[in-house]
């Protein structure tokens, strides 16, 4: 369905637009809808905007399955202070200013930035300027974290597989069902690889050495005694590379080898 929107209710170039390019197309009156960050609301109601006063904010569409829900992803700006900073006191004061009720209220009214303090969403001045803030509680309650916990260092690989596949489908370059299966297979492989690596990291130093000894003895070929060990061949190769770099198969022994029984070959 979404593929049919390209070139009809959305510009043909939308599949290659970056964030500000989508805003400019929307704000110039050349798109029927826009998904973007909250700051766009204030800009879209600016004096130079072609859509000023003619739009509203709603939830993202959801599927019709039994467990379907409106999707939303947690995000935000983080404030961090370096341990090596020479101006820690000044930085701490700045942080306190930025997260204060008064500053968050001002940013909500003038810039339509979402506050982190629940009380700001109930402020009468904020709601007068941004009435759509009153509808945001269900969004926060159903929002999910980006899958970085599951994917770890492979988050970029998973993200790339997703957006490249989506882009190809919207451009009509690939069959939808076939390409979705390919994407699913890639993501499963990435997450399974991370699981196996974390499993290997949890093993004691002695068991890691045993795994590498078995791998060396078989000259890199998985055989019965190697298959009985709780680590994938891909992860054994990573352990081997780590040993070549550092001279050991692990820095510490975590003592969690007992009870680990899963084996997966990638």
Count of helix runs: 12
Fraction of residues in H or I helices: 40-55%
Query: How much of the polypeptide forms β-strand, as a percent range?
Result: under 5%
Oligomeric grouping of the chains: single chain
Order of helices and strands: HHHHHHHHHHHH
The rounded Rg comes to 25 Å
How many strand elements? 0
- Give the number of domains: 3
Helix and strand composition category: mainly alpha
Through-space gap between termini: 35 Å
**Largest β sheet strand count, sense and barrel closure:** none
| Overall pLDDT score | 78
Unreliable stretches (pLDDT < 50, length at least 5) are 219-223, 250-266
How would you describe what is shown here?
The protein is mainly α. It is built from twelve helices and no strands. Helix 8 (155-170) runs antiparallel to helix 9 (176-201) and helix 9 packs across helix 12. The longest helix has 26 residues, at 176-201. The chain is extended, with a radius of gyration of 25 Å. Residues 219-223 and 250-266 have low confidence and may be disordered.
Q: What is the element layout, followed by pairings?
A:
Elements: H1 19-27, H2 39-44, H3 88-98, H4 101-111, H5 124-129, H6 137-142, H7 148-151, H8 155-170, H9 176-201, H10 205-217, H11 224-227, H12 233-246
Helix pairs in contact: 8-9, 9-12
Question: What are the defining features of this structure?
Answer:
266 residues, mainly alpha, extended
Outline of this structure?
With 266 residues, the protein is an all-alpha fold. It has twelve helices and no strands.
């Amino acid at each position: 369905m979404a593929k049919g929107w390209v070139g009809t209710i959305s510009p043909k170039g939308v599949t290659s637009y970056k964030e500000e390019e989508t805003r400019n197309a929307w704000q110039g009156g050349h798109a029927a809808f826009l998904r973007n960050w909250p700051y766009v609301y204030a800009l879209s109601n600016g004096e130079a905007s072609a859509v000023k006063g003619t739009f509203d904010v709603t939830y993202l569409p959801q599927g019709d399955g039994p467990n379907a829900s409106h999707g939303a992803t947690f995000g935000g700006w983080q404030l961090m202070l370096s341990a090596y900073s020479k101006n820690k006191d000044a930085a701490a004061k700045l942080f306190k200013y930025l997260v204060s009720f008064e500053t968050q209220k001002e940013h909500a009214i003038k810039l339509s930035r979402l506050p982190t303090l629940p009380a700001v969403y109930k402020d009468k001045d904020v709601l007068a300027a941004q009435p759509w803030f009153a509808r945001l509680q269900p969004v926060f309650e159903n929002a999910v974290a980006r899958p970085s916990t599951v994917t770890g260092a492979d988050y970029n690989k998973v993200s790339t597989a997703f957006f490249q596949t989506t882009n190809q489908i919207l451009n009509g370059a690939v069959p939808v069902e076939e390409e979705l299966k390919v994407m699913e297979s890639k993501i499963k492989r990435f997450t399974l690889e991370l699981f196996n690596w974390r499993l290997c990291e949890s093993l004691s130093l002695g068991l890691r050495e045993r795994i590498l000894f078995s791998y060396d003895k078989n000259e890199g070929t998985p055989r019965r005694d190697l298959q009985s060990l709780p680590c994938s061949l891909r992860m054994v190769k990573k352990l081997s590379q780590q040993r070549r770099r550092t001279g050991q198969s692990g820095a510490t022994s975590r003592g969690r080898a007992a009870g680990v029984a899963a084996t997966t070959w990638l």
